[in-house]
Structure formats: structure tokens, C-alpha cells
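Would you mind writing out a protein's amino acid sequence and the numbers that encode its backbone to help me picture the idea?
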Amino acid sequence: MLIIEHSGEIVEMILERIRNADVVIADITHGNPNVQYEVGVAHANHTPTILIMRAGAEIPFDLRGFNIILYENVTRLRDALKRRLEVILKLADQPQEPE
């Protein structure tokens, strides 16, 4: 859990951090509406997003098409996140073709 010290509007601070992030990692295990909104902001901003969820939890219908890391314990989660981050960062280093 990320704790942000602030004296202003927390939502604006969170949105700004999402907009400036290299990667967003979101745990969607509990179906928190705030997390789903923040994932939507990241997707709209084209920020690479890694979705994680504890194995056995029900994947929300709207997110079933995404490549979600299902984890059983912290060790497996750490290993899976490491692999996914390496791929995302490697892709980010490659030159982008003009549209």
C-alpha cells in the first residue's frame, strides 16, 4: 500500500502520480472501486499497468481479458512481478515507430 503524505486534494495527487508513472501495479483482489477507477485512468493515459490478484478471487467481468498475475503467496508474486516488469521496461527502452 502506498501512503502519500499531503496537505491538498488526495485524488488529484494520486491522479498526477498515475499520469507520471512508468508503470502502475494494481491489486484488484477485493474489487475496490477506487482501484478500478485508477486502473481506468492508467489505461486512458497509456501507462503500462500490471494487474495482480490473489488466486481464487473472482476476476471482475470487465478485466477478464487482461493478463492478470494470479498469486498464491508473496514469493510467487515477487517472482512474477519481476518477470513482468523486466518485459515492460525492456519494451519501453525500444524505439517507438511513428504512427
